Give the backbone structure.
Amino acid sequence: MEVIKYFKYVLLVTIAITFPVLACFFLVFRGLLHFYLKLKHGEDFYGLMDGYDTVWEVHETSRGQITILGTFDFDEEKNGDVYDAFVRQIHQPELRRSCRKAAMRRRHLLGYNYYIEMDPYDGLVQKMPPYEDEEDVRRMLSACSNQPIGPQDDKMLEFLVGTKPIRFAQNGRFEYPIIMKMHHSLGDGIALMNFCITGLGRDPAAFLKKTEEDFRKMFKIKKNDQGNDAARPEDAANEADANAEEASTTPKKGTMQLGKLLRKVMTSKFYHPLFGKPDANLLHGKTLTGRKNLVWSRDMGRDYVRAVKNIKSRFDGVSFNNVLFAALAASFSEYYQKHDPDNVPDYIVNGIVLLPFIPKFEDMVTIVDGKVEALDLSNKFVVAFLKLPLISNGSVEANLLDLVDRVKREIISLSQSLDIALTIFFMKYFAYIMPLPLVKFIMSYFDSTISASNLPGHGRLEMFHGGHINDLYFWIPNIKKIGIGISMFTYDNRLRIGLIADEALIPEVDNVQELVDNVFKYLDVMDKLSQTLVNNNNECTIPNNNINLDGLVCSEKMQKIQINS
């Protein structure tokens, strides 16, 4: 084992030292390849993949595709056959012109992937196979989530349209299902959400503008004096440059700053997949089958988005993501305690979290005369390696609020590291310049128990035919050896959660469903516990000695509420 670790260190140092030379060579080679493909294919050539797209071409037992389930109402007496209506809508020339990348096929040559336009709409919209109820749809989702998109698995997307309404238990309505399969190289969550709005919406330009305004309020993005966004998510990627510039002011200060920067670089969790000890637990380490179980759950009977906001407002420094990931960690803690009580880990050591990047509106979409003229379909997501705490001993409920604090500390530690900047460098530059085999080799060490995504959503979408998409769920693809994926989405201001699990890890679909449902259960418990807080010398306490509250501090707002009560 030590020999292998030593070899990895040598390999990393070798790559780091030779990267400038290799980068120059492969940049020239990439340029020549681009020139050759342009001559060969002419206007049909769309371009070589960038680094963000390339990472989704790296897979083993899972294809790099996002699976989406929507439910919608449709009046066939008014609008005709539902399948024919979708074919006419998706095949509009305006949509093909504004979203040209969606019409591409993926090809590979001499170590690099590229896009080419080849009969893109052939089989793009298909009828869903026969189904009778919601369970049939779930099984169909699980089966098609890892099936090729197109006969040669080279298309960007595919629509499977339901031809009859069925009753969905979680909202009680009779609705038509639609399954959308989109390869992740087409774009990240924000881009694909905008594509769905553009392709299926009644007035996409107005809806996209409203969504952008909602995002600004949600993320508190303001304009500076120059009219530009004052603070943006990509600032994390510039931290190294900022530190280096500050370090150059004085020799003494420069030495201290550069030392601090080097410590951050060398201690980053980015290296953990290469040199750290991998997760060893019930949900990791088995050979994956490629057969998936997909389940979903939504907030029924109460507004969980409001509940999460209420919970976070009761503590200092706790964010929306803190609360969600704490509930997720509690659900996994219960699963481990129930199914492998003697080997419950203290942490999921290296959880991979996909963070949304919110571009400027003018960079996302071009609107001319009230219509979408061009839509940016690209990947700009951010990857972080989160050490997710678990409750290995004792009652999950009794330690739940302490778990909130532990998750908060890990997220703060992540925000103060250079992990995000290093992963951006890897995807933006390394995966862009280097050939796919070398990218695959590095990513073969990206190994964890789970990957997770939390995507801010938009309001209920009015569709082209006048009906609405009433429910919307998505599932991220499993990355390399990771067999568990969690997707959280706030569609129509309601919380939706999807979970995809390889059958080798969780063969029983009821157990997969339990993992999702328990996230909502622990949000309920968290809300109830935090409502009973009584301030005592600025420390949160509950009239129950069995409740662990180490580290949590009530917010000033909560203190006033408690005093007034």
